[in-house]
Design brief:
By secondary structure, this protein is mainly alpha-helical. The protein has one domain: Collagenase (Catalytic Domain) (3-Layer(aba) Sandwich), CATH 3.40.390.10. The longest helix has 16 residues. It is globular, with a radius of gyration of 16 Å. The termini are close together. This is Peptidase M12B domain-containing protein. Keywords: Disulfide bond, Metal-binding, Zinc. GO terms for molecular function: metal ion binding; metalloendopeptidase activity. It comes from Callorhinchus milii (Ghost shark). Pfam families: Reprolysin.
């Protein structure tokens, strides 16, 4: 729950509220094979979540936190700018066992991609210093959890794109486990 509290705080910078509407713990067996290739793990998880999870529980974004170490130094993966698409509105991250803050940073980063924010580049202005914001490509630098001005601009473009259906973000769930107000 500490990780949830943290990414709610991080997203409050963008006036985005995060509600936890469900949690599943797979302690006996995985419901889907978890590949060491993060792209395959994401594809398989999204297939499972759109066919098995979504019919049981309405959600805007599904997140798999796995103990599997993805190859190629990947800590996670999602689809860029696919929030509210159902079968692509989710992500996978590796639980590095480095604590709630790291997991919160990884999840926040992947949700950011799903909300249309690419990695920061050398032209992105980060108030905390170059390369240190949450959408930086290098996770070791996310010591100050902030979004760059570039990330905020990408988010604004995503939210105002007439070709995107973002209606899933405009509703508030009827039932939730943790709401933004109850987590601070």
């Amino acid at each position: 729950m500490e990780a949830l509290r943290l990414f709610q705080i991080y997203y409050s910078q963008l006036n985005i509220k995060i509600f936890l509407v469900g949690i599943e713990i797979w302690n006996k067996e995985n419901k889907v094979p978890i590949s060491y290739n993060s792209s395959i793990a994401l594809r398989d998880f999204m297939r499972w979540s759109s066919t098995e999870l979504l019919p049981r529980k309405h959600y805007d974004y599904a997140q798999l936190i796995s103990g599997v170490s993805f190859s190629e130094y990947s800590l996670g993966e999602t689809y860029l700018a696919k929030m509210c698409t159902g079968d692509m509105s989710g992500g996978v991250v590796k639980d590095t066992k480095l604590g709630s803050r790291k997991v919160a940073n990884y999840v926040t980063h992947e949700i950011g991609h799903n909300l249309g924010m690419p990695h920061d580049d050398k032209h992105s202005h980060c108030p905390a210093g170059q390369g240190t914001c949450l959408m930086s490509r290098y996770s070791r630098l996310w010591e100050i959890p902030m979004f760059s001005d570039s990330s905020k601009n990408h988010l604004n473009r995503f939210l105002t794109d007439k070709n995107k259906d973002i209606s899933c973000l405009l509703d508030q769930p009827d039932n939730w486990i943790v709401s933004p107000k109850s987590s601070y």
